[in-house]
Amino acid sequence: MTGLSRRRRLAEATASWCEADFERVLRFWPLRCRPEQRLPGLARQHDPWTIWLILGGRGAGKTRAGAEWVRGLALGEPDVADGAVRRIALVGETFSDARNVMVEGPSGILAVHERHERPAWSPSLRKLEWANGAVAHVFSAEDPDSLRGPQFEAAWADELAKWRHVEETWDMLQFGLRLGAHPRQMVTTTPRPIPILKRFLADPSVAVSRVRTAENAENLAPAFLDAVVRRYAGTRLGRQELDGDIVEDRPDALWTRDAIEMNRIDDAPPLQRIVVAVDPPASSSKRADACGIVAAGVDEGGTAYVLEDATASGLKPPEWAAKAVALYRRLQADALVVETNQGGEMAMGVIREVDSTVPVVGVRATRGKYLRAEPVSVLYAQNRVRHVGALPELEDELCDFGPGGLTSGRSPDRLDALVWALSELMLRERHEPRVRVL
């Protein structure tokens, strides 16, 4: 058939179409999506894959692919499922993330439905209900036990590499996937070199798709793409956050992921002392470095536990001070440890304005960041530091910090706060000049 014949037949076939017909075709996801967003084979019962893993950069279209897959499952789209899938689990890093990205986001589940087919969304009940009886329940990876009991035919897990209790939450989800002839699940995430993702990549039953930020350029602001590509292309951070590559440890880094992973625990024991360390930004502008905020404690035997990374970007001084004080209160800490080199007096003054009763320990750096960090990394090598749950952004900085700093050239704000916290708890005899302000 010639090109002219095909065009004539297409014109004849669509001659009676109204505007709504054309809109319906243009919305048809299997025609619109890019090849890497397309299902790895029809979702028939005899297909070998049970997990579809989409590794991608920021803004690469992972969320849209996940939302369209859930829509196809719930409505029983022939290219997705044999009949409607009645019970679906949606698991995000937190409930807020699941709600704001997976459900209500611009590429989320509600957005990809036409108005007449859109499910009813009940945030208080954390569930979506379709007119045909299909139901999707929303879960937070911060609460693995919430997945005990419920059962499902399918699941969508978003940003799995950022989950705090990734192994436990994933295990609980697997026990719940016990309905239907062939339960399936999709994982959409910007990758990090964590054990569970490495297992997925080595498993032949896992279908893997990779999406790059640049491939979704038509749906992104040109200024955004130009800025991030110009700054991060080719860097370790860019390979991970734009290209969706799993980047292993930096050879000259002070920390290794294996050492951190080997000493990870779910809960800390009773602690003798807890501090919250603050590495304040040098200025209050929106372009300033982040405010590093890290909490750590030490037990009776002298083992340290990194409890939380609450580092914040884009906050004004009263806001990050309030965040640090709130963490101090919640953990019932003994002191706030604050670096005073750049704007330190201002930082301590702002904290006093938020709560004048909080004990503040001021510390001053007289050595470079690498020299300060090195003795703390030795504590890790001696298995004297445990991470409580996953702290992905902090761990990324640790494993990317070498003699020249981070490969991105950014300030290691999370790392700095960690170093101050563990130095205060475990290396006081080597500590920088300090002054206690009550």
Description:
- The chain has an eight-stranded mixed beta sheet, sandwiched between helices. It has an eight-stranded mixed beta sheet with strand order 9-15-12-11-10-13-14-18, with helices on both faces. The protein has a two-stranded antiparallel sheet with strand order 16-17.
- It is built from 16 helices and 18 strands.
- The protein starts with a helix and ends with a strand.
- The longest helix has 15 residues, at 317-331.
- It folds into two domains: 33-241, P-loop containing nucleotide triphosphate hydrolases (Rossmann fold); 257-437, Nucleotidyltransferase, domain 5.
- It is of the alpha/beta class and 438 residues long.
- The chain is elongated and about 80 Å long.
CATH superfamily of the largest domain: P-loop containing nucleotide triphosphate hydrolases
Give the rounded overall mean pLDDT: 85
Q: Strands of the biggest beta sheet: in what spatial order?
A: 3-4-5-2-6-7-1-8
Rg computed from alpha carbons, rounded to a whole number of angstroms: 25 Å
Q: Tell me the name of the CATH class of the largest domain.
A: Alpha Beta
Low-pLDDT residue spans: 42-46
What is the CATH architecture annotation of the largest domain? 3-Layer(aba) Sandwich
Structural class: alpha/beta
Please give the number of β-strands: 18
Oligomeric nature of the chains = single chain
Number of domains: 2
Strand content: 15-25%
Report, as a whole number of angstroms, the end-to-end distance.
86 Å
Query: What is the fold named in CATH at topology level of the largest domain?
Result: Rossmann fold
Q: Give the helix level as a range of percent.
A: 25-40%
Question: How many separate helices?
Answer: 16
Largest beta-sheet details? 8 strands, mixed
